[in-house]
Amino acid sequence: MNPLIWLTLTTSLAASTIITMSSNHWLLAWLGLELNTLSILPIIMKPHHPRAAEATTKYFLVQAAAATTILLAGTTTTWQTGSWSITHSGPTATLLITAAIMLKLGAAPTHLWYPQVLQGATMGTALVISTWQKIAPLTLLYMTHNHLDHTAMLAVGITSAMVGGWAGLNQTQTRMIMAFSSIAHVGWLITAMTISPNLTTLTMMMYVLTTMATFLPLTTTATKTIADMGTTWPLSPPTLAMTMVALMSLGGLPPMGGFMPKWLILKELSTAGLMMLSTTLLLATLPSLFFYVRLAYLAM
Asked: Catalytic activity, per the record (predicted)?
């Protein structure tokens, strides 16, 4: 790709997220989300391959549908309240926004596009979709935090955590495993959002760090399947040893960093008296931990 085009795309990708994050106006937020989608489409499509074209099409359709729903919700709010402000939204609009953001984040039960898109993209692009592309929708959730339906949010959170764990057990492709891991983590993020937005920031930061630490070695060693994982040890033992640590951290195994946000979320849930919910969330992480441990074991 021409360096100038590449620079334009990456700049608009960064700028679009910042536009959404700093806007207080529904139209500006929607514009940022649309610009975000448009700037990543050529990046996903860059390897001229039918799989990449399929991933791009799926990504475009899902993101466009979600952004349109957000615009509809914003217009409805303006119609009812006479204000374009993001912080003023009625119950109907909030429900629409929540549904659209869940679709954008790839949270269960609207997650089916996500693993397919990641599998069709390159490792680097998959990393961008898993980390940077989640920031703008999450910011919108932050802004509408006071109006959110907590029951619906907790239900989505727990469903995502369970789906991410169970569906990932069946996968042999590393990108698919990372996709389901991402869905499970989004579940934790959404659960954290209902109890403490500050905790969500911490969880997101830890998630981005550990996901980058896992994706980057997989990119450099070109590890596409679980079987490849077993053959990369002679290539670079230190890299693979670090990948182990990152995988364990993603699984939330103490004393790794990834354990801290999960521990704090469970503490908050227990304090709020949601014992059943926290137990279910905790059990839902066991399948995820199993496939991380399996990856780590094969790498050794």
From this structure: a ubiquinone + NADH + 5 H(+)(in) = a ubiquinol + NAD(+) + 4 H(+)(out)
| Best CA proximity match to 187, nearest among 282, 100, 113 | 282
Q: For the segment 148-195, what is each residue's pLDDT rounded down to a tens digit?
A: 888 999 999 999 999 999 998 988 899 999 999 999 999 999 999 998
Q: Is 44 a member of any domain?
A: no
pLDDT of res. 206 = 94
Cα–Cα distance between 272 and 289 in angstroms, integer? 26
The answer as to whether 84 is a domain residue is: no
Instruction: Note the pLDDT tens digit of each residue in 19-49.
Output: 999 999 999 999 999 999 999 999 999 998 9
Asked if residue 288 lies in contact with residue 181, where contact means CB atoms within 8 angstroms, the answer is: yes
Look up the pTM and report it. 0.93
Q: For residues 290 and 284, is the Cβ–Cβ distance under 8 A?
A: no
Identify whether the C-beta of residue 30 lies closer than 8 Å to the C-beta of residue 70: yes
pLDDT: which is higher, 182 or 227 = 182
**Residue 61 falls inside a structural domain:** no
Average pLDDT over residues 194-210: 93
Task: Tally the domains of the chain.
Answer: 1
Nearest to 283 by CA among 192, 189, 173, 184: 184
Q: Which residue has the tokens 């799989």?
A: 51
- B/e letters for 83-97, b = 16+ CB within 10 Å, e = fewer, are ebebebbeeebbbbb
β-bridge mates for residue 173, sequence order: 225
In a domain, 29, yes or no: no
**Domain carrying residue 204:** 149-299
